Amino acid sequence: MHMKIYRYLYQVTAPSRTGLAWFDLIEIFLVVIGFLLYFLVRGAVVDREELALQNARWIIELQQSIGIWIEPSINEWVLEHGLLVRFFNFVYFWLDFPLIVFVGLVLFWRRRTFYRLLRDALLISGGFALLVYWSIPVAPPRYIKEWGFVDTLKEYSDLAYQAQSTAAFVNPYAAVPSLHVGWAIILTIVVFRTTRNGLLRAASIATMVLQSISVVATANHYLFDGVVGAGVCIVSLMIALWLQQSGYPRIRSWLHHRTDDRSLDFIEK
């Protein structure tokens, strides 16, 4: 049994493997379970409203003190233009996890090394984010009523994360860090490492910029959240890069030694 596990791990970590094999179903299943657990755990920590509001007002005071409290103006500006409301709602919802899933599937099929880089960076950053959500709950701008924020997703579309059907996966006090911003940065960096196509690179940059605006425009995050999200995800990406360059080769060397099976060498193609 152990030998089969070693063989499987050796096969799925082959750095240049392409196409599909039966054991890829296990990989897809484990990744789906990983993200499902992330959303479930994130949604489970929702009972500290008073602390979340207190932390949110601290962020507001911090941004006011350094002259970058611009969230009310951006939300108001978007509300004055119906097309902008719909546009940034679309960006916030569809150019986040749905886009990541699409890019991940393409990379899984065509560029497995970069798929693993994307996968690892997302899961590692998700783990870090869960620790912050649990220890430092923060209410998003839409909960700060005295500033007149309007939740554009809830009021002007059917894409609200707070819908009853998704309630088990949503933590309304998970504003910090903003993984919308952080994951957009990870996606952009991975795309740049994957291709030299100018249009794809430009599209990834545009997505990152628009996502960074949308999180504020839709009253879901503060600028502070985006900065923290960027920091968390850059650190996570560095860890993922280390895994690619050093961690996985060491694991594969250990697995090869444990199996003592030269027939495994054929996978290195």
How does this structure look, described?
70% of the residues lie in helices and 0% in strands. With 269 residues, it is mainly α. It has one domain. The protein has eleven helices and no strands. The protein starts with a helix and ends in a 10-residue tail after the last helix. The protein is elongated.
Topology diagram in text:
Layout: H1 2-12, H2 24-44, H3 49-65, H4 71-79, H5 82-94, H6 97-110, H7 112-135, H8 152-156, H9 179-194, H10 198-217, H11 223-259
Helix pairs in contact: 1-11, 2-7, 5-10, 6-7, 7-9, 7-11, 9-10, 9-11
Structure in a nutshell:
Helices cover 70% and strands 0% of the residues.
- First-last Cα distance: 26 Å
Number of strands: 0
Gyration radius over CA: 21 Å
Put simply, the count of helices is 11
| Portion in strands | under 5%
Work out the helicity level: 55-70%
The 3D shape can be described as: elongated
| Multimerization state | single chain
Q: Mean of the pLDDT scores?
A: 86
What characterizes the major β-sheet? none
Extract low-pLDDT stretches.
263-269
Class per helix and strand makeup: mainly alpha
H-E order: HHHHHHHHHHH
The total tally of domains equals 1
Keywords for this entry:
disordered C terminus; about 270 residues; elongated; mainly alpha; 11 helices; about 70% helix
